[in-house]
Amino acid sequence: MTNSEESRYWIRSVARAVDVLEALAGGEPGKGLSVTEVAGACGLSKSSAFATLHTLQQRGLVADDGEGMNRRYRLGMALARFGDRARDQLSLRDVARPVLAELTRATGMTSRLAVSESDHAVVIDQVMNGERVQVDLRMGMRELPHCTGLGKALLAELDDRQVADLIARIGLPKRTDRTITQLDQLLAHLKDIRETGYAFDDEEDATGVFCIGSALRDHTGACAGAISITGLKIGLPTWQYQELGRQVRDAAGRISEGLGYVRA
Asked: What are the residues facing 19 on neighbouring strands?
């Protein structure tokens, strides 16, 4: 028994209904499940499974096809309405803000949230680290895609042809001596980003400043934006970059889960 089940607020019938919906959600598309299959999946008697299915069906949360022994149950269309309302009420900033705050506390660095707009990463929220010496970071800033942590995290979500088309539109302007200015080098770099799950800007946009970014995904698996941490490179040991990258990647994963993303 879990801690939740031991709570005096635990309602067994509600939990049973959720278990039934989860079982139906896991069924093979187009086939549905029989009462016996639902009962087996949820550890219920057939009578309990039928009563739960019948109740959910009356509310439009479950639908059925067939008669008698051939009757099969599937999720009802009322759930689609709930899903639409849930997405309407979901704010990327609201989901990301507590994770950004936690990331800043854990790393001691400013964390930011950005979305893709007009081939750039546009910062829509940030949590400052409170240090007296601050990197010049402003809300609404447009970040170049090829030389910033946020930009590269978003760019890595595109395929190579899309990347080439985007670079053809905006170019590869040199910001520092470390900026990548060749398309083939950028494509190779993006391949590494896709493998690690985070992007590293190593003084490529501003001398003495580094940034680590990671992409976010929504309930459809599509890219919903990116987050990053930014700090001064001086005094930071090389080995720490990978650890920071994992922290950013994990934070991005938590935000993505909050947006409804389910890892395959």
From this structure: none
Cα-Cα-Cα-Cα dihedral of 154, 157, 159, 163, to 10°?
0
Q: What stretch of H or E contains 209?
A: strand 209-217
Give domain 3-86's CATH architecture. Answer: Orthogonal Bundle (1.10)
Rg (CA), the chain: 24
Question: Can you tell me whether residue 102 is helix, strand or coil?
Answer: helix
- Whether 3-86 and 90-258 share one fold: the answer is no
The torsion angle over the Cα atoms of residues 202, 204, 209 and 210, rounded to 10 degrees, is: -30
The letter for the amino acid at 12 is R
Name the residue ranges covered by the structural domains of the chain: 3-86, 90-258
What average pLDDT does range 245-260 have in this prediction? 96
Please list, in sequence order, all residues whose beta carbon lies within 8 angstroms of the beta carbon of residue 228, skipping any fewer than 6 positions away: 111, 112, 114, 148, 149, 150, 153, 211, 212, 213, 214, 248
User: Exposure of 2 by Cβ count < 10 A (0-12 exposed, 13-18 middle, 19+ buried)?
Assistant: exposed
DSSP for 17-44 reads HHHHHHHHHTSPTTT-B-HHHHHHHHT-
Task: Provide the token pair at 142.
Answer: 């447009």
Least confident span in 53-67, 137-151, 192-206: 137-151
Contact 103, 248 (CB under 8 A): yes
Class at the top of the CATH hierarchy for domain 90-258: alpha beta
- Provide the 10 A C-beta neighbour count for residue 97: 17
**pLDDT at 82 exceeding the cut of 90:** no
User: Model-level pTM greater than 0.90?
Assistant: no
- Other Cβ atoms closer than 10 A to 50: 17
Beta strand 199-202 with 142-143 is: unpaired
